[in-house]
Write a structure and sequence with these properties.
- The structure is a single chain.
- The termini are close together.
- The chain is built from 2 helices and 8 strands; from the N terminus they run ββββαββββα.
- The longest helix is centred in the C-terminal third of the chain and has 10 residues.
- The strands form 2 sheets. Strands 1-2-3-4 form a 4-stranded antiparallel beta sheet, with no helix packed on it.
- β5 and β6 form a beta hairpin.
- The chain is mainly β.
- It has one domain.
- It comes from Lithospermum erythrorhizon.
- This is F-box associated domain-containing protein.
Amino acid sequence: MYDPVVVDMYLHWMVDLPLGDSRINPCINAVMIFDFNSEEIYTMPHPKVDGHWRCQVTNLFDNHEKMMILFEMDKKLWFAHISQQGGTGMDIWELHDHENWSWVRRYNICKSQISKRTLTHDDMDTRLYTSLLIPEV
């Protein structure tokens, strides 16, 4: 599991739990949230692309959270999802409206468009991409 992220008095973290009915896609319960004000805990789905879940991997329960990360930037919650097809790209989403759980896709990074000359350790996108490609052991 990746480190939790606190934004606007909510603690968020990615989970990969078959909550309830095992036939339910774990994408629906992908983000666990603790509300510090109400002291309630609940789950929400991660973003969809074109109305479809992007994490249709062979074994969802083994790979779901390994392909995704939550992070905070500019006091907002962000979500990055790496492609399952050999790590060919990544979508980066901003949580636009926490109350309505509304996500906006802000970036689509294609691995084939990135040259080694543009990759530096100071580049936030590079660090994020590297951390998704090589999970810590």
